[in-house]
Amino acid sequence: MRALRVALPEPVPDGLAPELAKRLFFVSSAIAEFDLVAEGGVITAVDLVLSGEVAESAITAKIGKVIAAEVLTQRALPPRQVWRSPVSVESFTDPFPLLLATDAAFVAGEGQVGFGEPLLSLVDHLDARLRSIALELPRSREFRYPTLLPTSVLDRFGYFGSFPQFAMFVTRLHSDIDVYTGFVDRYRAAGRLPDDLFDQCGDKDYCLPPTMCYHTYHQYTGRQLAEEMVVTARGKSFRHESRYHTSMERLWDFTIREIVFLGGESFATECRDAVMAGAYALLEELGLAGHCEVANDHFFGNADTAGKILSQRMMELKFELRVPVAADRTIAVGSFNLHGHFFGESFGITGPDGAGVASGCVGFGLERLAYAFLCQHGTDPAGWPTSVTDRIGDPGAARSHR
Length: 402
Fold this sequence. Notes:
With 402 residues, the chain is α+β, with helices and mostly antiparallel strands. It contains 14 helices and 16 strands. The strands form four sheets. Strands 4-13-14-15-16-12-11-7 form an eight-stranded mixed β-sheet. It has a three-stranded antiparallel β-sheet with strand order 1-3-2, covered by helices on one side. Helix 1 (17-27) packs across helix 2. It starts with a strand and ends with a helix. Residues 142-381 form the Aminoacyl-transfer RNA synthetases class-II family profile domain.
């Protein structure tokens, strides 16, 4: 590990600091940690911790390229809050060390966390409350989807051209006896996977879903809906984030409760707004501080990144529900999105009149919401709001059951 300060070729306004931070880990796999250096209301440099041998000139050039193409091309818009919880929190705690120490959670791998009680009951309770919000919407139904998603689904609307950093593909060895026997012989001889493993793999037809709503669009591809509808599902989602801190704050393998709206634009907007109102009420019920603000997706590696972000923010197509996990940090636990006719046209989904449908979706990260809850209320259920404990009982009872 070595430290390096990179002076930025052009200062970045403080208002664009979050957009710069979103991209730095993806600039190079050699970047292990970073801090933004601010002076006089602008970011003037970046302090890096680098792993492995990498040329300073190469890192500097890559950072300059990203800043010029994807950060400074954006307008620094002040965040606009549309709601704030009446709950205030004076102190926070990091629950993860205690969860590990009590065997309530374990780190299964990079960005992967397994957990038992009391988190099991808490996550299931949060999901049940969100599910009830979804099923109260008109013409709502629930599905359970498989994990794997055909790559062609994401190809239909150009996902890989906007979010290459998140993509994860599922592959396998070629269906050939010579490949199998050669692989086994080399594996047994070396005692490890061969370095050229992927030269023997060819299937790129499936990927891991970055979120659950794409399963719903896939389900209704080329179909004419008899009526406007709402679909909700809970399932595993995966996004490669380049770096993960040891906690449940940001995971590679996580669980989403998704709600999708298909119909006219007014129907999608009304459903989204209803779920937002339900989410606000839920946060208050949970005794959580938090707020909702205008947001944008993490577009990356795209010439039109700045235009997409500006349009999304100006039209207020995306909101995020953010909950504090420390005195100086919040995390997004839910997002509320409108898509216009983009997905309806991309997947050939039409309404009763034969016209393309509009859509919207809402997604809640269940592990993130539970983690934020523990940061504010602690890991001992005795200190949790009665609105939760009255419904789930004693989570410890499941742990001691034989």
